Amino acid sequence: EVLEREETKFRQTLEKGLKLLDEATGGLGEGDALPGETAFRLYDTYGFPYDLTEDALRAARQRERALLDSMHDAAFLMDAQGRYIAVNRAFAGLTGREPDAIVGQADEAIFDADPVASRRERRELAIAGRTTMRFEYRAGSGDDAAWMESVKTPLFDADGKLTGIAGTARDITARKLAEGRMFESEQRFRSAFDHAATGMCM
Question: Does the predicted TM-score (pTM) go above 0.85?
């Protein structure tokens, strides 16, 4: 019975430590170090050795990168301050940069002024709603313009505090053009039907 209580206590301590580690690593970007205060607390309170903590941090970053790179859509993770924590190659391809050159940066260092304002507005709407939100918008101008669909998901900790934003984006130009052609076809059919009906009444 004593052994069982000790095992239960150990599991509870471990779970609390893992939760703290997960919350601490959630806002860190590629190459960022775990704050010394957090590392000491994990060691002193929960018994996490420093090297184990650093290994867990590296493993968390690798898992995030692998998960994002497995997605066809452009995808990113951003901290609560608006800095990119991780991006996949599809997202990096939209910027003409390597993923590692984006991590740690904010939108202002990557995009032009107008896209930055639009991206911030979409993020703020999702954060204010505290829910996943989907947006469709035109990106670019002239022959290079494209229709994009983006999804923003605000991330909160157990206390309801914002810890970051997860998002994806995809090019939906082909779908929008197909919808436009279908609408035009329906309009032509409706117009022809209305004229035919008018002719029959006469």
Answer: no
